[in-house]
Design goal:
The protein is an alpha/beta fold and 214 residues long. It has ten helices and five strands. Helix content is 46%, strand content 12%.
């Protein structure tokens, strides 16, 4: 039985970072994977790249971006921090189905939680930020990488969520747009669902999973 669902934020409630970077790459005739790696580092790992350190809350956004801008400049382009986040806002996909699914499953008595790799400056605790994208009133647990000092796909961040939820891995579903983050959750016994550019298929998969295990 699914007792709780853990949601990623970026790529689920908002556009996928890989798609935003892909649009920049296309504009400049660059390889999307290479540009993504320059900005975010090897995202299937948890290392010393500036973005990884930023998401663990070790450095400030402005400090991280200075390092990342230098890496982007090696591709012969300029990408300001403002331009970068504007691209994230250019998501052409209607994601209302995600909010609807959260609400419908919450009404069925399933506990909702967030596990996000995020940036302290975008926490939205004072309004705005990523919290403005999520129905926070329905979220019983929030595990934010910059607050706990550990980021996906490190197993510890999932274990923190399970501990806060007070439940076992096999009764929890986890959704993320990054396959390696979902694989890490599955490795702990959680039920994983990968969210593609269009989230509707993932929402249908999640509902089917809940129904099957109810």
């Amino acid at each position: 039985m699914i007792e709780a669902i853990c949601w990623d934020v970026g790529g689920v409630f908002s556009g996928r970072p890989i798609d935003a970077v892909g649009r920049v790459a296309v504009d400049h005739g660059l390889d999307p994977d290479e540009l993504f790696s320059a900005i975010f580092g090897p995202y299937h790992l948890d290392g010393d790249h500036a973005w990884h350190r930023l998401e663990r809350g070790e450095i400030a956004l402005t400090d991280a971006w200075g390092t990342i801008e230098a890496a982007i400049a090696d591709f012969g382009i300029e990408l300001s921090l403002v331009d970068f986040f504007r691209r994230f806002g250019d998501d052409p996909v209607d994601r209302s189905i995600v909010i609807d699914t959260v609400r419908n499953l919450h009404e069925r008595g399933i506990v909702m939680a967030i596990i996000t790799n995020n940036v302290r400056e975008l926490s939205g605790r004072e309004g705005g930020g990523w919290r403005s994208l999520v129905p926070m009133e329905l979220m019983s647990v929030v595990i934010d990488s910059c607050e706990v000092g550990v980021r996906k796909p490190d197993p510890d961040i999932y274990l923190r969520a399970l501990d806060a939820l007070g439940t076992t891995a096999d009764s929890v579903a986890f959704l993320d747009d990054m396959t390696h983050n979902v694989d890490a959750a599955r490795g702990l016994g959680m039920h994983g669902v990968v969210v593609d550019a269009d989230p509707s298929e993932a929402m249908a998969e999640l509902v089917a999973l809940v129904n099957r295990l109810s």
